[in-house]
Amino acid sequence: RKEVEQDPGPFNVPEGATVAFNCTYSNSASQSFFWYRQDCRKEPKLLMSVYSSGNEDGRFTAQLNRASQYISLLIRDSKLSDSATYLCVVNKPGAGSYQLTFGKGTKLSVIP
Amino acid sequence: ETGVTQSPTHLIKTRGQQVTLRCSSQSGHNTVSWYQQALGQGPQFIFQYYREEENGRGNFPPRFSGLQFPNYSSELNVNALELDDSALYLCASSVRGGSYGYTFGSGTRLTVV
Questions:
Q1: B7: which residues sit within 8 A by CB, 6+ positions away?
Q2: Which of A5, B53, B56, B106 has its CA 20 to 30 A from that of B91?
Q3: Do A100 and B35 touch (CB under 8 A)?
């Protein structure tokens, strides 16, 4: 089983749609959780951290369920500029370090 | 606030050669991590440096090595390049522990021919 698994995608949605991304992680020692956004041929950029209580940033809502080892990202009222690959990321302690483990990413295309 | 800068941006090398990639961390960050991202995949952890020492390593062979300098900048060295080493190499800096997130550089795209 992969350490971080995401919906395979791609997701093609019309402008204004609501889209949800799902992610599961295998290591219960994982301590911090993030969603990153990566545009084509660019570096990943932090979209938002994910907290157990759930958190919202404008049109974006992230949820974490530690018991199920499940993370989600909801995007409401999709914009053309939301088109990108969304990476689910967990930060777990390794041997003396904290490593980011990435999912493969889910590509989102928002269509006019 | 200066972000993470990487050099060079693009590089073409021949199989068997050696390459050095460079990274300057974001101001205030003391930890540097390196990742390899193959086409269509998520980034894979190579190793991390803290206080000029390797502080964790992913599943990469010893021909991948690195350094961190007193100013927290870092180098990634790859010896005996193979075709499969062709990828985007990303450097990320953070405060140790990374709970506040990591800042990535724009990467070095390495092509091995």
A1: B21, B22, B108
A2: A5
A3: yes
